[in-house]
């Protein structure tokens, strides 16, 4: 507030004379016609009577000193929200509410009801649209579930009634994954120290696979040779035939190919952590191999792969250490090969007498019920004179051990406990009908009683495909058979439980490396293992 002669002025904010920025003398500003000059002049006129009794002074000097003192004491102008509040005034919200109340009061009552009805109608239409969307989503979900259930029932019916469909559902060999990669393109699978191999079976099938070198000096030496050169092939064969080499024959499970991600990673882990030559093929009908899969055909494929490895591993003095590694369905394939190979091992020059194969028939009545008999062409027989003569001329390469990852007792039990069979497990007749309808048996429970090599079983507690108790049953059956027939080899049966592992990721756990290192080292050293519970 400024007091004049008979007049009171309201300034914009306290302490300012009406000029926001005074940088020159108000008298000079007045002479130039600026706003400051007018303010200074008015201040001079208003303050003249007040200062008349004081010491005389010039009008210009008193005006300048008054404005200078006023502006020098003025605070800076407000900013942001304070400035906005200053412009609107303290009573602006109250004023706006009063205006809105007056406008509502002027609206006639019928118009107000009409607006309310429109708002309620829009709300009802929005709720109806939301309800229609929910119904459409529910219908789509129910149709999808009905379609899946229909396919489920159809697949189960075909499995139980149509023999031709049994192979398609059991093996799933028509599934190709990854679909866009050529299986012979080793660079795409990041296998630079590997080669493509071809194996011919006894019945004329062509199997294609890989031979991966150990990840140490051998792999580094192989990089000196050009790809697909004859010198490189000879180097791979020579490296496999060294006496200190370790070889793993890997048999994968059903579905897809050897190029599936978890299988490629497992092969890399075996080559890197176990320092082993890893040899694997796709079974007939899988991947880029020819033919159609069957139980007898997969057994012939395993024997052909063993013959291919034996031809190269038996070149060195003393031979290499060869292990059979089977996963899921491949575990049964490895067991069948392991129980078949003692025939050849017993016919070497170091053995003068043929083994007694009478103990190869399972003596347990439960085993006979749960694991049906194998095909006639796969049953072990007593060797004749021709076999003995052929065996004496053969190289003495035998499996050092058998590694079984997520095995099952037989194919019927694996199908019964598969997640897809969960709705049918409650039916009283389903189990019996499933066992009778299975044309492929894969009786691992019978095969493991005939295996003489050290065995380690790896099974994960979180396996949703093959239940953990099937692996335990296989382990106890093997120990019982050895206790009854070969008590000195009882400690050659191992079992390793993985509390966190599932069906196909066991290689990612440090325990997997520790168990295999201990098992292989014990087998290669003392020849006896231990039981890991």
UniProtKB/TrEMBL annotation:
Keywords: Hydrolase
Family annotation (InterPro entries): AB_hydrolase_1, AB_hydrolase_fold
Presence of the UniProt keyword Hydrolase in the record: yes
One Pfam family of this chain: Abhydrolase_6
Recorded superkingdom: Eukaryota
Single GO molecular function: hydrolase activity
Residue numbers spanned by region Disordered: 31-60, 101-125
Stated name of the protein: Alpha/beta hydrolase fold-1
